[in-house]
Each structure stands twice: as structure tokens, then as C-alpha cells.
């Protein structure tokens, strides 16, 4: 069985024209809504998408044999840096679309919430939507964007007490948060896709160098895209164990989880060797950045199940852990 | 014959999901495009719209007997205050949609261009799109937003030399500009719809108190919504004629044109009495803000042809001037 | 009888050289005072003023047959955007000058207070001067400037709770506030005189779209200059009645009062038709902006009693309401 | 004979109510003017002033036996930090008032110009008024305020090339500049009167540590109030002569001139001993800060001629130099 | 006996390479420490210093016959405007170095503390180090920098309640504070050495024009460098006694103490005459700014004991007061 | 033979106390210099350093068998975000120390320059020091910090024309630049050591997505620390090859060079597999972050030669390329 922990919703155009409208009237038309029918929702799962190799979301899942996918909002659309009220409305509508898809495809989809992470709102205010999605809509967890300013200012690091109300709610509801950036606006130098990597790198550093993991021993954090730069640069952090009196770095690192959303076998191997098979979760971001066929191999770049399949030193049990067991336990699926 | 100089395009959702996408990837996916078919364009003209009294764009035009409508971008969607490159792409795509509609409905629609008025771009750069739309696409004029910051900063007044490259291009191409605000974002206190009025008020003041009308004697400026507050407050400006040595205020005021886009007969009468019938252009903004039926009368609020029809002191010739002749001459229709 | 609710004090030069001095020593000389004698006060009422057609304040009142005028500070001199302590001193001295004039001319003048609306002070601190002028000096009300920053920053809208301490004091003392802007400094584009109009427009919008009128059912608000742009643009706000569930717009609008300080008959007629005769108060701003003779008619532009006299559809009772009765009741004169 | 190089104009209230007006209408009323009659000018010289011990300007000059006084604008009124155009108008009107006084009292007064030192204007633009006053009005020099921001920002130091256009004009016209601060606004901590001292201290440091005196060997600079802190702290700068290779500090210091505007004999003695009698100019600032009678001695604090008279080690020739000769040569009187 | 109240520590290079390191790793290496041996401390007292005329700290003390010197941190090294945590670490290490020197040279040195005056820290937090140094390390007082921003922003004046927690601690511990600036960074125009003078000038003004001396009658404040500009400019402040109702200026001024750290006899005489012998404390800043030999006299510029010796009108008792008695009582030595 | 391209200078304390002094007097003492003797330079190479496992620089080189090391300034000490003039002085002094060490140890050391990358200076001004070090001092290349603001602002990306004057100078002198961050100050969230990684990641993205490599085909760029996150995340960038028309990503990536400064064998293997053996340069940063002994293995973490030695699939020729040949050719050693 294949459980993909890293999927993003394929929503009809109406959700985004709704968003464009919000950003234009700035609330003057009231909240309104995207007014999407079930048929339109289904059509959006089956429509071939030129950005994704002209295959549909369902084509991609079927092709890779993904049995169950956790779906969350398209991160780059989350617009956390916009006006609080607008972020709130759009986030809630997006989560509602996800929920409706989970009801239409109960075997295929499980929801992961976006949070209205506007810096204009108190962190406490973000947690209302976490509660609604988990307790009322049955979602399995949420995304956590370490940079609600989307590149326009420097936020408090994840180790800062600023974030504690969210950690408290996550522990209370006993669901994981998946570290995943959102958009990235000027003045930063990087596109959103690289910003994800940079934010994951900072996020791990922020968490491991703070007392978050001690203060919240039950907090479950998944880091997307194989943990940014950290597994590759891990040697850089080990000598400090000798200099200082902290809990060993590897022990701290292995209190997090990591998805396998990397598109080369070498990198996935390095990840597994570094953080351990028991901390890795199958994740594809399908359809998404990697949804093109590699002209040299004919494979989709994001056919991560094939890359994992090619790793000869994994045992069947280990493969099963990565593909489904770890996720099943962590997300209580 | 009825020529409506104040119409805004009814575009398919795809144009706005395209916009939402631009605002999210910030250019990282490249320019792309909204990929709209002719059928989708036609459907958008005929779809009943709940925001507009459940009637379609065509229903509204037919109902009011509008023969020809000048259509421009929906102003509140123009997003001038966003990143220059994104503004440019979206403006061009919007104008292209307008052009395609003009080709599909050559008798019904005539294009009025939006300009990529990003403060990040030189005014000179805005004029390229003016030239393209007028010389290549046959547009009759353009919108001019006096506040490209959309409420987030104070722009140079329209009397400032900052705007001269645009005035030069307008004169060279011999087309009018229609003063019309765009969006309105925090920190301003007013919604975009009131911002239009405020900007028109400032625009008239800025133009009349500067040397623009002397420096560009052939410049043709139409002010939307009956000129903001000016015709109503006109008495306030007359005593200065006695104090100063300027050209008389009324003479300066009457070098501009005004549309009749006001939704009460009293106001339209005041406008006509103040600026003169020869300076008034029939304009409805249909379908738009006024597209609801007045429960007391059963009329659409924006049935401005009926309001003008009710003015008993207008001669048939004057009515004809307002309804069609003035516009025909000004826009060379 | 003619009661003019819109008059501003004619003070001796010493009041303004006092102000210039404050702005120069910034408090280093202590508060001091303008040291004006009664004779100087009287002379200032009788001195012909070249800015006002070479007639004196008294000439203007006598000429127009104004029996009683409510006088407040010259708004453009109020300097709300300066340092709090200086604003406080100058406002108090100005109100004291007004009070002394009211004592010298008890039949002719009634005081309307300026408030020390410095953004550096708490709104609560402004109300001390309101209390002093009303309870100790017998003033009939106060001015309320919606933009204490005088164009240098965006203030909270009048619907914001920021303003509530002032509304509470007004209700407690049971006196009206007259919406009237003060100065206007860069970076805005408009002169103070147009800023008045823009602020009145925003003020009405802010009040009517908020819960102020519900939270303070007894609050009495007069809007100067015939309500800015709103009566002229009123049609723009009516369709929302159909879309939303608010109290009807006209009902909300008619919970405010409006002065007739417009210098054309057409505009005054539009005002009276729009808000109703029972909501209109005779106001001239004499001597002021309109104090020049119209060369075409020989009349003073601000001879508003003549303009109202020329409106043929008003009954004698209605004229009496506008000229005196409404003001008498509202201000308890 | 007594020549007092440090006097400020006593102008009628009208000049300052004109200023208050400019700061309120911000130019909307046009430039206008203070409209002062000759009688009003004369009255201002003869009116007893409560701030100055109830004596008039002329009383003070007569009492001290001042034969000729150089009069410049009241520095704290110069408002350099306001909008450029307003500064220009007010400065020119002030200089014109000074000029008219010099014509009314040709034996008693000689003009020293204020410059429109708005940071919004180019330094080049300031020099037009220097040229007008020197070449057309016969002024003997000008004030130079090292801090045109009046405490709201940090200006370029006087050694910076920013100031060179002014130095060039001073050399070309061959007139001295008198270093004298203007107002002082928040956020600084000091009142304008102490700001003068601080600015003089920085000014001397800035000039002596730069190449100004080498680049403009003919530049004549007078420092007010005995040179701020420098003569008292002079020892602090001497050891650097040993460390570095500059021209000796005392030599550089003595290329400037200093007025005696200090109100204690000890300080004047220290000044004379430090900079030399040949670099000292009699200056009183009469009437001004020091125009109160010392209750212990009955003398006016600013009776500086008496303090100098009490210095027993000065020769008659030296006294004559200080009282008149140095000034006569420097200002070509 | 000679007690010098104005000395600064001569510390080994390691203290400053430690500081450079802090400013580079910004805390990433942890606090660490300068790791200085007693031998290195002693060597730093005995090493000839080219900046100080090639004589050592001890040479200077011996040469001048200084028996006891109060030593505090080198002010220009205190870096108060840097990150709070770094300021705290460096200040504590510097005070510890001072303490170790006092233990190595118990007859020669007495400690005066630097405080971690980072604007990022609460004033309350600064006082912990004051308590530690006074109660645990036996220090005699502390430095007080009126400008913790070091020229990069305007701090609250010393009369502001911002400073009250420090005044409270000083009174509670019954130790004096010595007013002394620290560094001076852009955008100010002056070097740190002149900034000291300017800050002392403002400090005296701020204290005397506030209620600090009334609120803290037991507060003991010493002003360095002879009080900046104030004793020289003292006449400027006396006329206000006549105008206002304050306690006489001289009385207020004489509630402070002043060191004699001026390098010319004239200035020291002026100081003594102005503030009185009983308010003057012998201070040299040796070795420091003045540690060069005057080529004309062969004396060290900072041989202030010689300058005082040359003042012929001082009695032996007065000399003794200045040289030792005043300091002994004030600092309880 | 072992050539280590990534070494940083071990300088005596005096260089850093010199730096601390510059940051304190801000130039007021003049440039001065660190005054280091040859003996002190040699001692600094041989002194055991507690931060580096109590071994000396030479111990580390000898222990690892490094024959030749390229030494550059300690990056975290470079203080690029400080005042331009101070950066210039300190950078030049540091390079001079490096040069003197190269002369003392001509077989062991080869210089790599730091540049005075202050954002206050023009990029053109930075190149003077590049020219001096390469043409006069024989240096082999320079460091290039992509973030001269050190975390306090967002700089232009390396693809921006801002950087072109530096690229031109590098090409003209035909020397490589080594991408290496400097310090990292608030408000960023990461310590300098992680900032290096983030900056390398952005640097590669900036260069490869721009036209720099086309505009400067001969430009030689080495990326430190194995290229930040890029080789690990490389799969993320490959699908774009299919979507766009760029030169293939791997081809562009392989136009850069990468050092092996990673402290785990897995990471080094991933690097070599990703960029190719011909693009890898042996680099250790010895002594530095990795200079602690791994308690599990007894090896130094930065014994990168052992890690490379353990990679069983490398041929002897490949090892030789990595260890020396690639560097020899690139740096012309």
C-alpha cells in the first residue's frame, strides 16, 4: 500500500478567481464564496493539466499506485502575507474545498489543513481553523509555514515563544504539522520553490537549537522536501556536540520526520541513511513541480516510488515503513 | 442610438484564476496565459450573474437598449500596486480578452484599454500598451488611474510632470483618457468604490490648478461618475476667479468631459446644468455597482437612460448629444 | 431669524503671532499667551479684510442679516498635526478668544469649540477641552476633524473604536459635533479647502458603514459643506440595500445633519431634496472662502440666504426650519 | 563707538501672523505678504516688550550705547525645516522687513540676511537670496544655520561638499557668514537656545577638521555665542597636533571669528585669552535671551559692554578693536 | 595625596579581540571569555603605549604622583548600541578585568563600573551589573552614558522617567554615577571625543530642567570633562531665573559634581569659579586623549595637577579638597 | 599531494583588537594598523587553539598532510555590513597579514583575498583591492560574499548587473572567486554558519537563472561547502528543463566548481556523483568548524581526506583530480 503524505489540492478555477476577487475588492463585496459544484470538483481531478505533463491529478495517483494521499492547499497560493481577514476567508474556503473532495473520494484523499497564518492575526486566532478542520472535518494535520511574511520581513524563528499557541493546539489535538513554506514575494531573491527549501533549512535549525522539542515532547513535526539542506550538511552540526553540552545533534534531528519528496535516488538514499528509515515518510507532491517525464528515462520525475524501489539495500519491511507504516502511525490513518 | 462610454468587461473565471496564479508564483512560472476559448468568452457575456441581479451582461445591454458599449478592464481588478512585471502581463492579457470580445461582437463592443500603471515602471513604459491597443487593436481610448499606489502611498498629482509622457502619447494618438480609479488597499479608509469618487475629485482639482490643459490643449479627458464631488461643490471654486488671475474656473472645468454614471435624476440634472450638455457623455457602468432593481420602482438603478429620459427640460437634440453624438465625436466612433 | 451654524472666528493678528511663536520655540518659552485686549478683539470684528472683499466680519453678518452665528476656530489654522502640548495650548487660547467674543457680543455669537486633536494625545485627553468649553464657557458644540494627521498619515476611520471616548463625551454633554477638516500638509495632493470635502465624504461613509450610530443612538453629527460628495453620489450607495441586510441607506444618511454651505442654488436644492429639509442647517462660513462678490450678479458668493430664498418650491415653514428652527433644536439655542 | 554684530530684528506681530498663515494654508492662498506699514515697523522698535524686561529694542540699544547694530532674522523663527516654498517666502519677507528697517534707521541698523535653508531646496537655490540681499539691499552678510533640519535629522557636516555652493557665493560676494542655529524640534532633547550652542560646537569641529578653510582661504566665518563649547574645551584638541600632521589647531581656530555674546565676565575673558582679541567681535543679542536685569547687580545680563569694560587687562586699543574695529574691517562697515 | 576620579582601564589586546569576536559571531559561539592571565594584566599596565607618548599606564600615574585612580571601562569601546546580549557579556567581562586589576593593585586602583546600557534591554536590567560590581566587587560607582544609541537615534533625555530605575538603584546603593558618553556612530557628525562634550552639555540641561534632582535628592551625579559647555555658557541660563519661578539656576547647577578633566589652566579656573571648589574633583583621564607632551612646555597635556598647582588664588585647603577630599567623601574612599 | 582550497587565516589577537578599535573609534583615531611582528605571526600558526581541539593551525595541516592551503580571511570576521571606510581598512590589513604569512610560509600558504564588500562602496571600489592582492601580492583569487548586508537587508541577487564590475575584474585578472558568506546579524534567524549554506544555495540559483554565465563565459566560480543545498535538492530543478527552453540544468550547474567541505562521506559522495569529479576541489576549512575529534571514530570531523579516501568507487586518478589537479588548473598553482 502507498500512502503519499505530500499532495496538494487540484481545485477548479473558481477557487482562484474567488481569491483574485478578494484581493481586488479587499473585502468590500463581503466574504461571498467560490460557488463550486460537485461536478466542478470532480472535473478538476480528471482534467489533464498542461503544467503537469498533460495528465490529470487522478492519472498521476493511479499511475503511481498511490492508494491514499494527504492533500493540503497549494502552498504558493496561500497568500499569508495579505490582509488578515482575506487570508482567513480564503483559507477557510480552501479547506472546505479539500473537505468536500475528501467526502467525494473518501478512499483516496485525507485532508491536511492550511492555516490563516496572517501576521496581522494572533497565532491564537490561527488555531480556530486548525480545530475546525481536525475536529469537525476530520483532517489529519496541518501545514506550518515558517515565514508568514512570504519574504517581505523576517519572522520570529520557530523556536520563539511566538509560535507556542500553535504548538499547544497541535499537542492538544494530537496531530502533526508539516513544515511547508507558502509564497515568496520581493524583496527576497529566490522563487517560492527555492524559498521552501530555505525555510525548511531554517526551520530545522530553529527547532533544534531551541527548547521547543523539550517544552513540547509530544509535538509531531514533519519537514517537507527531505529537510531542505540539513541532511546533506549534517556534518556541519556534529562537532558542536563535542564543544557543547546539548543533547546529541542526531538524537534531536531524529525527533522530527521527513518526507521523501526529492527527485533523485542519491538524495533519497542520503536522507534515509542520515535520519533513518523510521523517520521517513513517502511523499511525492504529485501532481506538482516534478510532474514531467524525464526524457532520458521516460519516468515521471516525481515517480518517487520507483526511486525508492531502486534502492537495493532497503528491506521489504523498511520499504513498507516508508511507503505506509510510518505515515499510518504518525497521522493515525 | 445609445452609446454607453462606461462599460467594463465581463470575463471568464479563467482570467482571474490566471491573475491569482501570477500573484502567487510572482513570475516564477513565467508569463503563461489564461487560455480562454471563444466559447468561454461568449458564455461569459450570456451567463446570469448573481452580483448583477441574476442578469447577464447582454441582458443588461439589451434591456437598456445600449447599441454600443465602450468596454474597459474591471477597474478594481487592475492591481496597479503590484509588481511591475505582473501588472504588465495581466494588463496585456486583459486587453487581449477585450479585443477578442470586440472581434466577436463588433457591433456591440469597442475597446478601452487598461494601462500597466505600476509605480515600479516608468510612465513611458505604460505607453507601449496604449500604442499597441490603439494602433494594433483599434481601441478608442484608455483608462487613467490617478492613484497607481491604490491607496498605499500618495502619488504625484495629475498636474505633475510625472504624467507628461502619457499625455504626450494620448495627444499623439488622439484618443481620450477616462479618469477611473482602480483598487484601494489599506491603509486607506475607503472601499474602492468610494476611492473612485475621491480620486476623480482630486483629479479634476489637480488638472485645473496645473498647466496641463495649457501645455496639452488637445488632451481629451473624460471624468467618470459625473466628476466625483466637483459639480456639486463647484461654488467653492468660483470666488477664486475674483481673487486670482487664472482663466475662469467654469471655462477650465468645461474643457473636460463627464459621464452620466450617477444613479439619481437630481444628480444627473445638476451635472448637466453645471458642465453643460455638450460636455456630458452617456455612461452606465452596466453591469456593475448599480445592477440591482430598485424595489420602489422596479427599475434597475443603473437604468440611466430612463433617468435622462425623465429630465423634462432636455430637448431631443440635447438628449441625442448626451446619448450618442458627444461620444461619437470625442471617441471618433 | 437667521442662525448661521457655520462661522469661524475673526481673531487679531496676535493670536496667530502667538501660534507662530509656539511653533518656533516649541514650548521653550513656556505657554505664555496672546495677550489680546478687548479693544483688539472688537477691532478684529470691524476691520475690513482684503481677503474677504474688503468687508469686515460684522459687515458680512449685517449684510446677510445673520442674527446669530456659531463661531468656531478657523479650521485651517488648527494645526492638529503638530506636537501635542503646542496643539493643546493653542486650541485652548483660541477657544478662550471665542469665548471672550461671545461675551462681548452675546446676541451675535455662540461658541463652537476646537479640540486639541493631536494624534500624540489620547482621544480621552481631547475631551477635557470639550468639557471645559461646554460646561464652563457655555459652548454649543465642537468641531470634529476626521484627519488629525492633516494629510501626513492615514488615521483610523470615524467608525473605529479609537473615536469612542469622544462620542461618549458628546453624548454625555448632549452637544453636536460638526465634521470639519483642519489643515492639509504634504504629501497629500489637495489644498486644505478640498481636503475638507474629501474628509466629509469619507466621514459619512465611515460613520454609516460602522456601528457608531447604533452604539450611540443619541450622537448628533453635523456634516459641513453639504456633506462633501455624498448627496451628489448618493445613488451609488442605494443598490447595496438590495444586496445586503443593513438598515436602508437613506435612513442611515438621514440620521446625520448637513449645513447648506454650498455656493450654488442647484447644489443646495440637491442637498435639500436628498437629505430632507428637516436635516438641513443654514450655514455660510461667512466671512470665508465665499466672501467675494460674483461679478455677474453683484451678490456675495456666500449669500446663501439669497440662494435659499430663490428656491421656489420651499414653503415658508421649511425656510424657517432651515434658517433657524433646526439649528435651535439641535444646538439648544 | 559700539558696533554690535549680533542683533535680531524686532518685527510687528503681522510678520508672524503671516508666518502662521503660511504654515496653515501651506501655499493655498498664494504668497501674499505681511502688509506692514512704516508706522508699524517704527512702533515695533519702540514698544516695551515684557519678554525683554519691559524695555523696547531702542531702549536697549540706547541704554547700552550701541551705535550700530547688525540685525538678522530672529533665528528661532526661521523654520528651515518646513516646506521649501514656504521657507523661501517667509525668509524673503523677513529680509525685506529688515531692509525697510535699515532704510528707516540708516545710522542704527545694518542688515544681515537669513537664507531660505530648506533641505528641500538645493544649496544653490539658497544663494539667490544671499545675492539679492547683498547686492540689491546692501546687507553686510548672512546667518548660516548648520542644521536646516532643526533637530529632525542629521545634516551633512559643514565640512561636507554639500555646503560648497554657499561658500563659493560668500567668497564671491566677499561677505561673512555668521554661524547661528535656528529652531529645534522633536526628537532632539534640547531647546533651541541650547541647540545653538551644540551646533556652534559641531560647526567649529566640522570646519577645522575638513578642508573648507584650505579650499576657501578667503571665507569669513563668525561663530556666535563665543564659539559654543570650543574655547572652554580647547585643550582637548591640542594633543592631536603632536599625534598628527595637521596645521596646528590654534592656528586653524584663529582663522574664524567669534562674537562676545556670553553673559559672564569669566567666559568673555576665557574667550579673549583663547582666540585672541583680534578675533573677537562685540555682540549682545540685544534684546534677547539676556534682556533681564540681574537682581544682584541691577545690570542687564546682556550688558556685555560693561562686562568687557570690567576686564582690567585689556588695553584701550584692544577694547576699541573688540567694540568696533574688528567688525568694521570684517563687515566693511 | 592625589585621587584621580577619571581613569580608564588599560586592558590587554585579548579583551578587545574577544569583543571583535563577539561582534562577528553575534553569540553563535556562546559567551566564552577573553582568557587573560594575571601576567597579561600586569604587562598591560607596564607596556609603553605609542598612543600615549610611549609611556605606560603606571608611568603616567607615577609621573603625576597619582596615588589612587578610579578606573572604568574605556568609554569609546563600550558599544552600547550593539545587540543587548553582546553588550551584557562584554560589559561584564570588562568589569571583571577592572576588578582583577583592583585586586592586583589594591592601593592604586578602585573600580568604577560600566553598565550594559543597550537600548534593547530594560533599564532595570542594567542595574543588575551595577549591583554586582558595587556589592560583590566593591566598586565605587558607575559610568552613565546619556546616549545608549551612540549617535544612531535620539534617546529619552536624562530627565525622563525612562532613567528612573537606574537612579533608584544608585540611591539605594549610595554610589555616584559619572556622566560619560560612549561611542559615536553615523549618522552623527562628531567623533566620539566631541560627542562626550555634547552629551555632557545636554545631560546637565536635561537634569536641571527636570524634576530628577527633586525626586532623588540623594542622587550623586559627577559630570566629566568639566561639564561640557555649561560652565562657559552659564550666563545664558541665568536670566531665566528672573523670568520663571524655578529654584535659582546656580543652586541647581551646584547640586552636581564636576571633574577637572580640562587641559588648559584658564578653563579649570573658569570651572572652579563657576561651580565652586567644593564641587570639583581632580580627574585626568590618564593615560588618554591628553597623554602627549606639549612641545612648548615639555609637560604632558594631561598633567592637570600642574595646571591646578599653577592657579595662584587657590588656598592649600582648597587644593586638598579638589585633589582628594571631595572625592574621598563623595565616593566614600 | 594535497591542496586544500578552503583555509582561513589564523591571525594574532592584535588583528582583532585592531578591528575592535576601529569599530569603537569609527575612524577618529585614523587608520593606524595592527602592528604585528613576524614572531607574532608565526606564533599564531603554532599556538594550540582550544576552539580547534587544542591543536594549532600547523598541527592540523601536518596531521592531515595538507601540502598547500589557500588561505583567506576568517569569513565571519569580515564585517561587510559596517561603515565602508572601516571595512576597507580592516580588509586591507587582513589581506596584508595573509600576504605576510604567505611570504613566511611560501610552500604552505597561498593567498585568497577578502574584498571590502561594504554596500556603502561601489562594487567598482571593491575591485581595487582585488587588483592589489592579485597583481602585487600574488594572490590566487578572492572570496565573494553574496550578502554584503550580513542579514540586515536583501542584496541584489548575484545575477543582477550590480555585480558585473566585479565579474569583469575577475575575468580580466583570470582568477576564481569563491562564494562564501561573511557574518550574519539580526534580524535574520540563522547563525553565520547556517547563513553560509543559505547564501550558497541562493547564489547558485541566482547565477544559473541569470545570464551571468553567458555574459562571462570565462568566469570561474567556486561554491563553498559543497554547494549549500543544491546538489541534494538537484532533482527539484530538472523538470524545468522539459518545461522551458533553457540550457539543461546539469550543464549549467557543471559550469561551477564545488569544494568538498562537507563532514560526512555520504554527502561528499552525493556531491561527487551530482556535479562530477572534475568539478570538485578538496577543501577542509581546517582549522575551523570541523576541528573537533569525533568521539566515535577518534578522527577529526574535518579529516575530509580520510572521508574521500573511504569512497571505494573513486579511481586513483579521480582522487588525484580532487586532491590537487583540479585546484592546480583552476587556480594556476
Report on this model:
6 copies of one chain form a homohexamer. With 333 residues, the first copy, chain A, is of the alpha/beta class. Chain A has one domain (3-330): TIM Barrel. The first copy, chain A, is built from 13 helices and 8 strands. Chain A has helices spanning 13-25, 38-46, 57-64, 84-104, 123-136, 164-173, 192-208, 212-215, 239-243, 249-253, 265-275, 304-309, 316-331, and strands at residues 3-8, 68-72, 109-113, 141-144, 177-179, 221-223, 257-259, 280-281. An 8-stranded parallel beta sheet of chain A has the order 1-2-3-4-5-6-7-8. The two termini of chain A are 13 Å apart. Chains in contact: A-B, A-F, B-C, C-D, D-E, E-F. At the D-E interface, helix 7, helix 9 and helix 11 of D face helix 7, helix 9, helix 10 and helix 12 of E.
Radius of gyration of chain A, in angstroms, nearest whole number: 19 Å
Report the biggest beta sheet of chain A as strand number plus sense, adding barrel if it closes.
8 strands, parallel
Q: Order of strands side by side in the largest beta sheet of chain A?
A: 1-2-3-4-5-6-7-8
Helix content of chain A: 40-55%
CATH C-level class of chain A: Alpha Beta
Distance between the termini of chain A: 13 Å
Number of E strands of chain A: 8
Mean pLDDT of chain A: 97
Structural class of chain A: alpha/beta
What is the subunit arrangement here?
homohexamer
| Biggest interface, chains and residue tallies | D-E, 51 and 51 residues
Strand percent estimate of chain A: 5-15%
Give the tally of structural domains of chain A. 1
Strand and helix order of chain A: EHHHEHEHEHEHHEHHEHEHH
Principal-axes geometry of chain A comes out as globular
Keywords (chains A, B, C, D, E, F): Lyase
InterPro entries (chains A, B, C, D, E, F): ACMSD, Amidohydro-rel, Metal_Hydrolase
Domain Amidohydrolase-related (chains A, B, C, D, E, F): 3-333
Protein name (chains A, B, C, D, E, F): Amidohydrolase family protein
Amino acid at each position: 500500500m502507498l500512502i503519499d503524505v505530500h499532495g496538494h489540492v487540484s481545485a477548479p478555477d473558481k477557487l482562484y478567481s474567488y481569491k483574485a476577487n478578494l484581493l481586488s475588492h479587499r473585502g468590500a463585496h463581503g466574504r461571498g464564496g467560490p460557488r463550486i459544484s460537485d461536478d466542478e470538483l470532480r472535473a478538476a481531478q480528471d482534467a489533464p493539466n498542461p503544467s503537469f505533463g498533460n495528465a490529470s491529478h487522478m492519472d498521476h495517483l493511479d499511475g503511481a499506485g498511490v492508494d491514499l494521499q494527504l492533500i493540503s492547499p497549494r502552498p504558493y497560493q496561500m497568500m499569508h502575507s495579505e490582509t488578515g481577514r482575506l487570508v482567513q476567508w480564503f483559507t477557510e474556503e480552501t479547506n472546505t474545498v479539500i473537505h468536500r473532495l475528501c467526502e467525494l473520494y473518501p478512499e483516496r484523499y485525507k485532508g491536511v489543513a492550511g492555516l490563516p497564518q496572517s501576521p496581522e492575526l494572533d497565532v491564537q486566532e490561527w488555531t480556530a481553523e486548525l480545530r475546525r478542520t481536525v475536529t469537525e472535518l476530520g483532517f489529519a494535520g496541518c501545514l506550518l509555514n515558517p515565514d508568514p511574511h512570504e519574504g517581505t520581513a523576517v519572522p520570529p524563528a520557530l523556536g520563539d515563544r511566538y509560535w507556542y499557541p500553535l504548538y499547544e493546539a497541535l499537542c492538544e489535538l494530537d496531530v502533526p504539522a508539516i513544515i511547508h513554506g507558502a509564497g515568496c514575494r520581493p524583496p527576497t531573491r529566490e522563487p517560492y520553490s527555492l524559498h521552501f527549501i530555505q525555510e525548511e533549512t531554517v526551520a530545522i535549525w530553529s527547532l533544534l537549537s531551541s527548547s521547543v522539542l523539550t517544552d513540547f515532547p509530544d509535538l509531531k513535526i514533519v519537514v517537507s522536501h527531505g529537510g531542505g539542506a540539513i541532511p546533506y550538511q549534517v556534518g556541519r552540526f556534529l562537532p558542536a556536540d563535542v564543544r557543547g553540552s546539548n543533547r546529541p545533534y542526531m538524537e534531536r534531528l531524529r525527533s522530527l520526520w521527513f518526507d521523501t519528496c526529492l527527485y533523485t535516488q542519491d538524495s533519497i538514499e542520503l536522507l534515509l541513511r542520515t535520519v533513518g528509515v523510521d523517520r521517513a515518510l513517502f511523499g511525492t507532491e504529485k501532481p506538482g513541480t516534478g510532474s514531467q517525464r524525464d526524457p532520458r528515462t521516460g519516468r515521471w520525475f516525481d515517480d518517487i516510488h520507483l526511486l525508492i524501489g531502486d534502492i537495493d539495500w532497503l528491506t521489504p519491511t523498511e520499504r513498507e515503513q516508508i511507503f505506509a507504516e510510518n505515515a499510518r502511525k504518525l497521522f493515525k490513518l
